[in-house]
Design a protein that fits this description.
Blueprint (H helix, E strand, L loop, with lengths): L1 H5 L7 E7 L7 E9 L2 E9 L8 H21 L22 E2 L5 E6 L4 E2 L7 H17 L18 H14 L9 H9 L8 H5 L6 E3 L8 E4 L5 E4 L6 E3 L1 H12 L17 H15 L5 H6 L3 H19 L11 H30 L2
Helix pairs in contact: 3-7, 3-8, 4-10, 7-10, 8-11, 10-11
């Protein structure tokens, strides 16, 4: 089936092989190899998860709008080969940026950017700085792209009050009889219910602007050059749509500045590392400060707490529902993930004054 799907994209050369690739929790991904003459070329093929992306055509239209805009910005800035700094879509033979299979599933192909890596765990301030810089540069390149030009492909995505309501509903239904098992986590969530609205209230009041944002800028969605150690580009652009910069900054910090990772083996290792946070904030603001408003900057230090609370809610609700959204490899993995996020949030609360001081320092 993979070779049949690939044949519908504008890829030249002879197909060699395709292997499952990556550690993503949502889409299925393959690394595909072709020979063109004596040259081996590699491509990424992905099938969008239909359970997550109900409007795959709109998802792909958003990606094309964003990547085309970024290429134009880079070219105008004098970058000789801008497609080496932007995830480059390969068109289908129909001219669309996607292929639909017999079941209506959507597939996309992109050029594989060689000599680059992604990191699930951030082990040094230098790497954290580049991950922050990669996110800041992405946001800066799309800062003049009008959000109205993009589809809202995931309504309520990063709307934390919405996820709190979803959690409440999953807890009430308790279809897998797991509620008793998560009583301490429920109490933790309930004590922090006000956290859910801290960002959305600012957006709804017009205090902070709606922008085009990535919406899922985990550490492993920033491609890092093996040769220079520098950020190359953001990948996994399925969630690109209108939002606020705090969705991105908060999620990036949550992912990159906990050295133990989302599936931490030992709860005692979970923490917000101040050195990683300082480096990530420095890299991010070095690119993003030029377009951020004062109100946006003021909320940056708060945003990781909101987004971490949100993801804890989502993992916990998915566990209560029977693990229908996030891929798992063990029966209680989503519960473990939820506990990691809630412990990380607790450490962020302790570190809040230090995080705010770091943001302020990088803006002066």
């Amino acid at each position: 089936m993979i070779e049949s799907i690939l044949s519908q994209f504008e890829i030249s050369g002879a197909f060699v092989k395709a292997e499952k690739w990556g550690t993503g929790l949502i889409n299925d991904t393959w690394l595909c190899e072709y020979f063109e003459g004596e040259t081996a070329r590699r491509y990424i093929l992905q099938r969008l998860n239909p359970g997550v992306f109900a409007l795959p055509v709109q998802v792909m239209e958003n990606i094309r709008t964003v990547t085309d805009h970024m290429v134009r910005r880079l070219a105008a800035a004098g970058v000789v080969d801008p497609q080496q700094q932007v995830l480059s879509l390969i068109p289908a033979v129909t001219g669309h940026p996607y292929v639909l299979d017999a079941s209506g599933g959507a597939w996309r192909a992109t050029h594989f950017i060689e000599s680059c890596s992604v990191y699930d765990i951030v082990s040094s301030p230098d790497l954290a700085r580049e991950i922050g810089r990669g996110l800041g540069r992405f946001q800066a390149l799309v800062s003049d792209l009008q959000p109205r030009l993009l589809h809202d492909t995931l309504p309520s995505f990063h709307n934390t009050p919405y996820y709190l309501r979803e959690f409440d509903e999953a807890l009430k239904k308790d279809i897998r009889s797991r509620a008793a098992e998560v009583r301490p986590e429920v109490e933790f969530v309930n004590r922090r219910r006000r956290t859910a609205s801290l960002l959305m209230d600012r957006l709804d009041s017009g205090r902070i602007p709606l922008r085009v944002v990535h919406n899922d800028p985990k550490a492993n969605n920033v491609l890092i050059s093996d040769l220079t150690g520098k950020a190359v580009c953001m990948i996994d652009l399925d969630t690109v749509k209108p939002g606020i910069v705090h969705f991105d900054f908060g999620d990036c910090v949550r992912s990159a500045c906990n050295p133990a990772g989302e599936d931490a083996k030992h709860f005692g290792d979970i923490r917000i590392d101040p050195d990683l946070f300082a480096a990530l904030a420095e890299g991010y603001l070095g690119e993003a400060a030029i377009f951020l408003t004062p109100d946006e900057t003021e909320l940056l230090a708060l945003s990781p707490k909101v987004i971490t609370y949100e993801l804890g809610l989502r993992f916990l609700a998915d566990y209560l529902r029977g693990d229908t959204y996030f891929k798992t490899t063990s029966p209680a993995q989503n519960l473990h993930r939820a506990r990691v996020q809630l412990l990380l949030l607790e450490d962020m609360e302790r570190a809040a004054p230090q995080m705010a001081a770091i943001i302020k320092k990088n803006m002066t």
